[in-house]
Amino acid sequence: MKNEKSGSxxxxxxxxxxxxxxxxxxxxxxxxxxxxxxxxxxRAYLQDPRIRFLELDFAHPDALRRxxxxxxxxxxxxxxxxxTKCIDPADFDRVNHVQTCxxxxxxxxxxxxxxxxxxxxTLSVFGPVHERTxxxxxxxxxxxxxxxxxxxxxxxxxxxQSLQGFPYVIFRPTGVYGPRERDYYVMAxxxxxxxxxxxxxxxxxxxxxxxxxxxxxVFRAIDRGVTGRAYFLSDGQVYAxxxxxxxxxxxxxxxxxxxxxFPLFALKTVSLCAxxxxxxxxxxxxxxxxxxxxxxxxxxxxxxxxxxxxLGYAPAxxxxxxxxxxxxxxxxxxxx
Length: 336
Prior knowledge:
Blueprint: E1 8-12, H1 17-28, E2 32-37, E3 52-55, H2 61-71, E4 76-79, H3 90-109, E5 116-120, H4 148-162, E6 168-173, E7 175-177, H5 183-192, E8 195-199, E9 205-206, E10 208-210, H6 211-224, E11 229-233, E12 239-240, H7 243-251, E13 258-262, H8 264-280, H9 289-296, H10 305-311, H11 319-332
Parallel strand pairs: 1-2, 1-4, 2-3, 4-5, 5-6, 6-11, 7-10, 8-13
Antiparallel strand pairs: 9-12
């Protein structure tokens, strides 16, 4: 059944982790739901017959304009398309920044600007802020991203914010986890093999957000009709560095685990070597210089008060509940 806010919605990166959940929620809410995908994208999580598909060639602006012009205007666009790991670090900027700007420029030139353009960014645009005081990162802090991924997302945020009257909404989630997610799965897989690895010896405050709560925030923004705003997303809690792995161990039936804690200089060496070896083989590596900087960062606290007060955002999944559901999904789908 359609609600009064329903209309047409395009979700780019729809075959990915967050994107596929956004598609499911859009369908549940009665939107005319379009999944923006590449020709080579998997449709494993896009099986509902109500989904309409739109192939988008972000790498070629002229082709992208033709694809968009043939369709017409969407009421809402949620832009999830992008990369989180690359063989060449320059690809972060090319895909996450340049291609997003080309997409926005095409929408403006073709007069296809939606009511809201929702951009899924990342807490990593701020980098290591308040590393000594452990204060929450707030929107008035000065971003200083220390990863190629974070820098590419920040440049895109700044471009959207520079456009007079463009109806953007930016979400900056902290670590997003849940069913279908593969990076935290690597941690669960390692623990299932009896090894847990940690970085550094100084206190580390971590934050997380379950994928369903990211989806909730996006649709609350649509319901409220906000534009010109950026919001941090977490579950509202702060966790010690071992909490996530401790919960995984519990959900796996408490197997024996060897805990390895590496000093940061050793982890950096391992990360650079892993990245070099993967690049020689033409592959991406889970351990790389970006991942090292993420693991090195000590303060991941962020202030979600604006999202709570302006959107009515109410996280429904703390880490205990979210990890339980995630590990159960990994087991049911034979990932573990």
